[in-house]
Every structure is written in C-alpha cells, then in structure tokens.
Amino acid sequence: MDVSDRADELTVLRRRLAAMSGRPDQSSVEVRDPSAGVLPIPEALSEVLPHNGIPRGIVARFDGANSLLVALVASVTRAGGRVGIVGMPRLSLLSAVEMGADLSRIATVPEPGADPVEVAAVLLDGMDLVVLGRLGPTDSVAPSRARVVAGRVRKQSSVLLVAGAGWPGAQLSISARVLTYRHAPLVSAPTDLDSARSGYGRIGGMRLQVTASGRGRQSQSTEVELVVRGQGADRTVEMVSTTAVRPVLAVAN
Question: Helix 3-20 to helix 116-123 angle, to the nearest 10 degrees?
Fold first, then answer.
C-alpha cells in the first residue's frame, strides 16, 4: 500500500468515527466531559484500580486473560462511552454483549495493516477507550513515538490500553490470570471442572486473579469471578468480587 492509499484509508476511518458520533460533517468528535476523570469499570474491580476506575488521559498496559479486557469494554460502552479495538480479530464481541456491551458504540479494525499504532492514534480522536492488540516482538514502539501518542491521549482525555509489553512508559499495568473454571450445570460440593464428571456440562464461568500496578503505587491484587446465568439468547455473564484487595509481590502469568 503506497502513501496516498494509506492516507485515503485513514480519511475514511475518520469519517466513520464522525458518523458514529452523529456529526458526519466534522473530522473528529468532541471528547466526553473530562471532569468525569475516569472510565467506568466493573464494580468488582473498583478497589484494585486507582480512583475506582481507569484515569482518563493515560496509556495503560494489559496482559493475560481476555475475559477481563472484554469486561472493561462492556463497562465503558454500557455507561455510554465509545470503544475502538485495533488488531484483535479474535476478541469475542459476543462475550462483550453477554456482559452488557452496546455494540453500536464499538468500532473494530481487526486487520490494521502495517502500522496499527497509527490507526489507534486516529481512533483516539473519537473514542473514550482504544484497545490496541499485542505488538510483535520486533514491533516495540520507540520511546519518542510513544511520547507523541501519549500526548494525544492526554489531549483527547481518552485511554489507550495496549496488550502485551511493547509500549514504553505506560502509567498503569493490569494483568489477569485464570485460577479455575466453574462447571455448569452446578454439581454438588465443589463446582470446579476437576470435580465434574467427564463429558458432563460445560464451562459456566471462571475465577480470575487481577493485579494492577502503576507509578507511585503499590501493586494490588484481587480475585473476581465470572458467573454465567441463563442459556442461549438469555445468557448473561456477571463479574463479582470474591476477595478483598491485598498487596502482592509478584504474579505469575
């Protein structure tokens, strides 16, 4: 793809973002009231993340189970925010809907091409949260470019959430590790899969350990559980807290 084709593609992307905001005559959308301060998160995570949410205007890093990432997307769109997802073709939007996400407020670019960082930077103009998929081992962002993009994040009062460790200078790191799976339908006594009869039922939820750390604050960890209710079109997934927050020294991923 030559430079002119790339420019045309980005122009089309900007127009699509403007149309999502209801302002197709403008190249970008006005950010939501920055006085809100933070992006909403599931209540079960309110103690482990700073300010009971993700502060606007920062770059955050995410690693581990995508179930937590889906829960964050659902929480933001359920509250009326807009989310852009770049370079994550396998992220389950069905799971997001089961957690209460509003699909009309999600823009996806599953195949962003050779420069996914540029696409994510464009999305920052009109989104409250932009999720950037894991960069390859040779695709680490140069510190100088990371600073430019971070400045744009601050200007737009949005949040850039980057999967993996390829982004230097992230102000917040969030990780999620699966501890166990819940069995469905429920059986007597323990309900993890190890206690279930072979070939009987299905996965009906999971328990995660979520750890958050950032500049000038101690790492904190909590356990949450994803509980599945209903079946088929009536299926919903809820995140609930299972333990109090406690400091941790390290978490194996």
Answer: 30
